[in-house]
Amino acid sequence: MDINASLIVQMLVFVVFIGLTMKFIWPPLTKALEARRKNIADGLAAAEEGRKELELAEIKSKEQLTEAKTQAAHIIEQANQRANHIVEEAKNKAREEGAHLIQLAKNEIEQEYNAAKTELLKQISTIAVAGAQKILQREVDKASNDRLVDELVSEI
Q1: Which of 16, 37, 77, 137 is the most exposed, fewest CB within 10 Å of its CB?
Q2: Which residue segment(s) compose the domain that 110 sits in?
């Protein structure tokens, strides 16, 4: 194998090329590759952190939803209890008012009954007095007495 000057020059040029490449081209290239690797690693870490935050948010939202359902059920139960209480109060008040009205009606009926009874007694007294006057004005015999009593009874 013949080594000639052109092969040596080519080897020297190649070594210079490698040296220049290692000094000027390789460092920015490795920096760019390192920056890209770091950027990808940061992106993956951010994605993992985002996934964890999403899981935590889902858990928290489920807990809040469960708590909201519990509170809603509690509020509905309280509303039902309050409604039942109001209905019972209204029923009791209606019963009391009904009993009061019945008592007032009974009292009024009793007063009307007593007034009618008093009026009837007055009328009977008036008729009895009128009948007694007629009997005393006429001659007293059995037939006229029976006839006057029948008239009085028919008037009553």
Answers
A1: 137
A2: 5-155
Per-residue tokens: 65: 């939803």
How many angstroms separate the CA atoms of 20 and 14, rounded?
Answer: 10
The number of distinct structural domains making up the chain is 1
Per-residue pLDDT of 78-127, as tens digits, reads 999 999 999 999 999 999 999 999 999 999 999 999 989 888 888 887 87
What predicted TM-score, i.e. pTM, was given to this entire model?
Answer: 0.45
> Rounded to an integer, what distance in angstroms lies between the CA atom of residue 127 and that of residue 152?
7
User: Which of 130, 154, 156, 134 is CA-nearest to residue 145?
Assistant: 134
Q: Is 135 exposed, middle or buried (0-12, 13-18, 19+ CB in 10 A)?
A: middle
- Are 148 and 135 in contact, with CB atoms under 8 Å apart? yes
Kind and range of the H or E run holding 35: helix 26-137
d(CA 77, CA 95): 27
Nearest-angstrom CA–CA distance, 72 and 74:
5
Q: How far is CA 2 from CA 8, 43, 62, in A?
A: 11, 56, 82
Whole-Å CA distances, 50 to 39, 41, 60, 88, 104:
16, 14, 15, 56, 78
Residue type, 137: Q
